[in-house]
Amino acid sequence: MKNNHTAVTSFILLGFTNRNDILVVLFIIFLLIYVFTLLGNSCIIAVTFFNNGLHKPMYFFLGNLAFLDIIYSTVIAPKMLSTFLMKDKTITYSACVVQMFLFAVLITSESVLLAIMAYDRYLAICNPLRYPAIMTTRFCTLLVCGAYLNGLIQSLFHTSFTFHLTFCKTEISYFFCDMPPLLKLSCSDTTINEIILFTFCGFNEGGSAFVVLISYFFIILSLLKIHSEHGRSKAASTCVSHFLVFILYYGSLFFIYLRPGSSRSMEADRVASVVYTVAIPMLNPIIYSLRNSDFKASFHKLLSCRFSLL
Question: 10-309 maps to which CATH number?
Answer without folding.
Answer: 1.20.1070.10
